[in-house]
């Protein structure tokens, strides 16, 4: 968890404690506040000490219990302020994957130049419906989120319309391992690799592949997107990180440029993809 995020969460906890101790009807004990809503007794302590992130409902109940309902808007604004940078999957997927895809659809609409790195699977922007369907199903099971697979697939396909927008440019790099990852049945992966080959000819897409045999200046770690050199989106197992401070964005720009030095393009990239495609025939 980032230092800035934790500091903001702790600051929110301090504000919650202030409200509890300054309740107009007299200060509430932590046990009294927890008992009012059937919370575990330790929950109040965890929230006030920045060890747990409150939900908007937690904040509403806190403001009401302390007799200061007018503080709710302030508390939610604080919460949104730091959660806009670290967006937990638990919260984002509460209603399924479509909402997340729609968020990225809007972010794509606002940007023109994209730089992407992916090491473990095909970019969502280049996925076939069957490949996307397999990925959404697996992640829904992992995150124990609602199954809205078909709606999420449709939203992802809608996002791909940006590939045909002449005002946009996509500079993408894949590690070869992503071409071999059986996150779907072999027949689906075969069709996906065929689709990938077709994107190389698009004038809006520059697709590079880093062969497994290539020398690497840095490890092929976490996938990320850079939007217009001003915002970075990184996916971890527990959350998405939306990063916009200049120093961090610059680190990702340097990372992308360093990875690019190991990538091959054009016919050489097609040869790597074709090699992975041929390998599927032996399975």
Average pLDDT confidence is 91
Q: How many domains make up the coordinates?
A: 2
- Kindly provide the name of the CATH class of the largest domain: Alpha Beta
CATH topology of the largest domain: Endonuclease, Chain A
Structural class estimated from helices and strands: alpha/beta
Order of helices and strands: HHHHHEHHEHHEHHEEEEHH
Tell me the Rg in angstroms.
Answer: 23 Å
Number of strands: 7
Major pleated sheet: 7 strands, mixed
Uncertain runs: none
Query: What is the rounded distance between the termini?
Result: 41 Å
Instruction: Determine the fraction of residues in helical runs and give it as a percent range.
Output: 40-55%
Q: How would you characterize the overall build of this protein?
A:
The structure is a single chain. This protein has 283 residues and is an alpha/beta fold. 52% of the residues lie in helices and 13% in strands. It is built from 13 helices and seven strands. A seven-stranded mixed beta sheet has the order 1-7-6-5-2-3-4. A hairpin with a 3-residue loop joins strand 6 and strand 7. Helix 1 packs antiparallel against helix 5, helix 7 packs parallel to helix 9 (149-159) and helix 8 (129-143) packs across helix 9 (149-159). The chain is elongated, with a radius of gyration of 23 Å.
Summarize the structure.
It contains 13 helices and seven strands. It is an alpha/beta fold.
Overview features:
2 domains, single chain, 434 Repressor (Amino-terminal Domain), elongated, 13% strand, alpha/beta, 283 residues, seven-stranded mixed sheet
């Amino acid at each position: 968890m980032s230092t800035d995020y934790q500091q903001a969460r702790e600051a929110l906890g301090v504000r919650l404690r202030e409200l509890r101790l300054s309740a107009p009807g007299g200060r509430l004990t932590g046990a009294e506040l927890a008992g009012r809503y059937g919370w575990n007794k330790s929950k109040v302590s965890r929230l006030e000490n920045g060890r747990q992130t409150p939900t908007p409902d937690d904040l509403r109940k806190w403001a009401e219990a302390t007799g200061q309902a007018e503080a709710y808007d302030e508390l939610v604004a604080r919460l949104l302020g730091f959660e806009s940078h670290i967006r937990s999957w638990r919260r984002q997927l509460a209603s399924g994957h479509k909402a997340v895809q729609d968020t990225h659809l809007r972010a794509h609409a606002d940007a023109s130049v994209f730089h992407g790195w992916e090491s473990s699977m095909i970019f969502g922007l280049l996925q076939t419906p069957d490949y996307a369907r397999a990925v959404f199903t697996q992640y829904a099971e992992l995150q124990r989120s609602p199954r809205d697979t078909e709606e999420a697939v449709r939203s992802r396909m809608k996002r791909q319309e940006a590939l045909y927008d002449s005002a946009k440019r996509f500079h993408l790099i894949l590690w070869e391992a992503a071409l071999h990852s059986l996150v779907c049945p072999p027949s689906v992966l075969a069709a996906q690799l065929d689709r990938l080959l077709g994107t190389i000819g698009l004038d809006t897409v520059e697709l590079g592949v880093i062969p497994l045999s290539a020398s690497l200046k840095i490890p092929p770690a976490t996938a990320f997107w850079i939007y217009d050199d001003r915002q970075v989106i990184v996916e971890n197992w527990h959350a998405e990180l939306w990063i916009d401070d200049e120093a961090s964005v610059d680190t990702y720009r340097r990372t992308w440029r360093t990875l690019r030095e190991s990538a091959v393009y054009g016919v050489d990239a097609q040869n790597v993809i074709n090699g992975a495609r041929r390998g599927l025939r032996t399975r």
